[in-house]
Write a structure and sequence with these properties.
mainly alpha; 5 helices; about 0% strand
Length: about 130
């Protein structure tokens, strides 16, 4: 029994140590760093909020959803299908954020999930209306 375990371990080590098993695939790109690549500015997609906007990612994600809502409200008010997300400053988002506060907890002032759902629905309405134009 012990001999079988020794043979199995030896076989496993042989397979793992073989050159074909441990070599990484060749790619055209060299490894530079562990840093995340910069986001490409996609058309009418809310950018990530700057880190200094709020102390937690939860709050920053809430502000990002509020930015999306403000942009969709601009479309509702004007009927203009042009993307205005890049034109709304973060200071305005923070100022308008008080309207969306749902609780007293300073670490969770917004219901970020609800804000995202609201932004998704407004953007879907905008996309449907602007497709037909």
């Amino acid at each position: 029994m012990i001999r079988r375990i020794d043979l199995a371990l030896g076989l496993l080590l042989t397979v793992v140590a073989s050159p074909g098993f441990t070599q990484t695939p060749k790619t055209d790109q060299a490894f530079d760093s562990m840093a995340q690549p910069a986001e490409a500015a996609a058309e009418c997609v809310a950018p990530r909020p700057p880190r200094d906007l709020a102390k937690t990612a939860y709050i920053r994600n809430g502000y990002r959803a509020i930015l999306r809502i403000l942009a969709a409200r601009h479309w509702q008010e004007t009927g203009d299908c042009a993307c205005v997300i890049q034109d709304i400053p973060w200071e305005e988002v923070v100022a308008q954020g008080a309207e969306f506060v749902t609780g007293d907890d300073p670490l969770r002032p917004f219901d970020t999930s609800e804000l995202r759902l609201m932004a998704d629905a407004l953007e879907a309405d905008r996309a449907a209306a602007c497709e037909s134009q």
